[in-house]
Amino acid sequence: MKGFYISKAVAVAGIIIAVSAVATIIALSIVYSQEKAKNNAKPTEGWTTPPTATSTTPTPSNEPWDRYRLPDSLLPEHYIVTLWPRLHVDEHGMYIFTGNSTVVFRCVKETDLVLIHSNKLNFTQLDGHLAKLSTTDGSSPPAIKTTWLQVRTQYLVVQLNGNLVPGKSYQLFTEFRGELADDLGGFYRSEYYQGSQLKIVATTQMQPTDARKAFPCFDEPAMKAVFHMTLVHDRGTVALANGMEIETVNFTTNGVELSRTTFEPTEKMSTYLLAFVVSDFAHIRTPEGAKVLIRIWARRSAIAEGQGDYALNKTGPILEFFERYYNSTYPLSKSDQIALPDFSAGAMENWGLITYRETALLYDPHASSNGDKEWVATVISHELAHMWFGNLVTMKWWNDLWLNEGFATYVSYLGAHDAEPEWNVKDLIVLNAVHPVFAVDSLASSHPLSYSEEEINTPAQISELFDTITYSKGAAVLRMLSEFLSEPVFARGLSSYLKEYAYSNTVYGDLWQHLQKVKNTAGLELPDTVNEIMNRWILQMGFPVVTIDTQTGNISQKHFLLDPESVPARPSDYNYEWFVPIKWAKNGIHQDQHWLLNSSALYEPMKSVEWVLANLDVTGYYRVNYDSANWERLLSLLIEGHQVNKCLLIIPVINRAQIVDDTFNLARAKIVDTTLALRTTQYLSQEREYMPWQSAIRNLAYFFLMFERTEVYGPMQSYLKKQVQPLFEYFENITSNWEKIPTRHTDQYNQVNAISLACRTGVEGCAELTNGWYKQWMDNPENNTIHANLKSVVYCNAIAGGGEEEWDFGWRMFSNTTNAAEADKLMYALSCTKEPWLLNRYLEYSLDPNKIRKQDATFAIVYIARNVVGQPLAWDFIRAKWDYIFNEYGGGSISFSRLITGVTERFSTLFELQQLQQFKEEHSQTGFGSAEIALEQAIEKTKANIRWVAENNDKVLKWFLSA
Ligand SMILES: *[C@@H]1O[C@H](CO)[C@@H](O)[C@H](O)[C@H]1NC(C)=O
Ligand SMILES: *[C@@H]1O[C@H](CO)[C@@H](O)[C@H](O)[C@H]1NC(C)=O
Ligand SMILES: *[C@@H]1O[C@H](CO)[C@@H](O)[C@H](O)[C@H]1NC(C)=O
Ligand SMILES: *[C@@H]1O[C@H](CO)[C@@H](O)[C@H](O)[C@H]1NC(C)=O
Ligand SMILES: [Zn+2]
């Protein structure tokens, strides 16, 4: 699953009102989903740490139905399922579906119990029981003693009078009905208007644990089976599922005209990858005779407007890229991609029928920005990567979700690069994934990538795994691994792993083993086994800061903690030390890679009076610090190097971004002085590249958050205005006075940075520009001439600078547009107003599903909280409505953690800390679901903020005044 992003374009524009917005939203945005397995050998490797303090497993009990994990006595072989969703309300005003299912399973251990997952389904009594048991050979099975639903653990329990016999197969038949609710989980409904006509779509989101809401099933990833699906649907609608349609038959029941579509049986697969959709969508497809049939499905008007064309253009080539990369043929005959108006995550890699948010699949050159386009290419790439890594070979249990998601996240950049080689997306992984996850992983309340299997049991614990660590740290450490093995070796290892485990399940050690095997034949030198090197990165939380002393040649490592006094929430068997690969350069010349294997070591070549730069291209998952003489050399290189235009050649652009990000964070951890960090921004008046600017803007976002309400604010604004002015003028120039759009993808991003920071700091001409464009649009609503790249920044500034009229116009446009990319931009911009009453009204709207789709509600609230005026309003709002939000928007979604993180971002006073702690106590009854960790992290971050402001306020004020 590719989760919680909203489009990156919006995120980029976020800097306007709250420069701060960007870092967090990108960090939070990165969530997808999938599985991958975990190492049974772990205990012998000394995994002795206790479970986290997060969601604790409720009431232990001895009965099998009180445990969340299935017993190992039965294995499913195949299912025969018929489902009939009703796309009209019934006499009780409810949307429902009915269905029946036969599951054939084999007994592998004697048992008198059938436990099968089932949630929120009502069963028809069959001979007095909720299910009927038979054998596959016609013999008689043991009689059913009793059946019941175990609600907490989500089982249908069938207790028998006798035992099932190992080696024999049985079948269990059930008939049931469920609600087709608008809860974005299981079999659910999505709604939209076509003209004035309300349309209903029946669709699914099974991952991680909601297949059991659609029909009774052994709902664990290792319980792979073959699925024979049949859908009954209204005449004239289209039914889709994982397998290709075989036939559609028309029939009539009680005067209702219906169709029945049957599908080819699936491959052997996990339940969480099932999907079925009934809609009246249109599609476009690859021509007859194409190797794989690719279809893009969406609302009729979106397809008619050509919004699916880009996805169709790119899906085939990306699929072929992965076939080459994995050296493995796509195993299915078709690949459907469907854009849904309501969807909780970003996209979901259901095998053969990938579901997307509209913004993740549809592209409209007039309404979509370059960021939206990049998002579409990356999400498609992410999901297609899962077709092998995740779908063909699947994690044994959710504790290894990181390998699945981290992997798909990493290779999505390779696939997107193949599709759009001009974009430089491979570099952008540092800004989009590595830097943001550093921010989370430097907290003592972070967690290791890999949990032990026993630690993850409940659906809430599973949902909580879909976080930034899983996606972005997973991607970062796999990228590091691929770099030090070299890409060809890494890819050969993958291919060998996929071949061995096709259609089955693995633990992460299986991948290490295959990489090791390939590495050995490639004759590559490593300081230790892949297993020894990598386990240090995945079994302990956090990452090191590597300190290089060029005076002595000493290099050392230390667990990097944002709060140096904090203590990691769990001990580590590796003592918080890592095997660190160091790619480095001296005086601009690349040196041999060096491995740091101990807490510190002398390495003569690093003793130098010339400048040393380590972690080239930030391929390593660590930060770097130097002695002050080397820092001074790097700083003067940035400034002088730029003057003679030299540093462009010798400090790679990614490392310019790194120097900024590292120093700011080292300063927050009190390892270097804050003024050193601020000094890295001095050369920016000469910088034109996107990555360093973006890095600076994100780090300064923290200064905005902390100081926007203080005396530091004024002098900081003056300084930044001075720094951004040349960039603003540069873009004014190369765009012929804002007439054109720059050619390069990253220049297009940086143009938005220039405008937003310029407007924010009051550069002359900026507000006039944005207000003028918006005014033109208000005067002529049918003809919006604002370029899609600039829409977010322009809308936001104009609404911030305007009043009710501007806001209401934006709201009208938001409510009327049928384009999801446009809607996202307006939804964000509406949060930019400075009027408290408008913000409060907008907060109320956010929880009205007729105004704001449920999938978007938490985004709207977090946007409002980013606004300095809106933040206290949003905080009051979610505190007052927590129970309601929790019940209405809870489900298995991770958006709660986004909500908590977003709303508390600015907290930096004792009073706010008390409020947060009080909030935690008051709602301990309702609980925080998937936001447990986020809440702990918010408390930790607030404490760190309080200390940081106390220590830095005067110093920072003085620096800005004199800069
Ligand atoms: C399951 O339901 C479908 C649709 O109502 C029906 O046609 C079919 O006969 C049912 N299957 C069984 C085994 O009862
Ligand atoms: C299932 O049964 C419960 C309890 O009777 C009822 O409230 C609910 O509406 C039923 N659901 C469906 C889809 O019929
Ligand atoms: C079933 O009905 C639909 C809609 O009335 C029609 O377009 C289709 O041709 C029919 N299919 C068959 C096999 O008769
Ligand atoms: C899709 O590809 C066609 C043919 O190469 C091209 O003409 C068209 O502009 C592309 N559409 C988009 C949206 O990229
Ligand atoms: Zn994913």
Furnish the topology, listing elements before pairings:
Layout: H1 8-13, H2 21-29, E1 74-85, E2 96-107, E3 111-117, E4 122-123, E5 132-135, E6 144-150, E7 155-164, E8 169-179, E9 186-194, E10 197-205, E11 226-234, E12 238-241, E13 245-253, E14 256-263, E15 276-279, E16 282-285, E17 293-298, H3 300-304, H4 309-326, E18 334-340, E19 347-348, E20 353-357, H5 358-361, H6 370-386, E21 393-395, H7 401-419, H8 425-441, H9 459-464, H10 468-485, H11 487-501, E22 504-506, H12 508-522, H13 530-538, E23 544-549, E24 554-559, E25 580-582, E26 584-586, E27 589-590, E28 594-596, E29 600-602, E30 612-614, E31 623-626, H14 628-643, H15 647-650, H16 653-668, H17 674-679, H18 690-707, H19 713-734, H20 745-761, H21 766-779, H22 791-801, H23 804-816, H24 820-829, H25 836-846, H26 854-866, H27 870-889, H28 895-904, H29 910-922, H30 932-962
Parallel strand pairs: 1-11, 17-18, 18-20, 21-22, 23-31
Antiparallel strand pairs: 1-2, 2-8, 3-7, 4-8, 5-8, 6-7, 9-10, 11-14, 12-15, 13-14, 16-17, 19-20, 23-24, 24-29, 25-28, 26-27, 26-30
Helix pairs in contact: 2-8, 4-6, 4-7, 6-7, 7-10, 8-10, 8-16, 10-11, 11-12, 16-18, 18-20, 19-20, 21-22, 22-24, 23-24, 25-26, 25-27, 26-27, 26-28, 28-30, 29-30
The structure holds 2-acetamido-2-deoxy-beta-D-glucopyranose (NAG) (4 copies) and zinc ion.
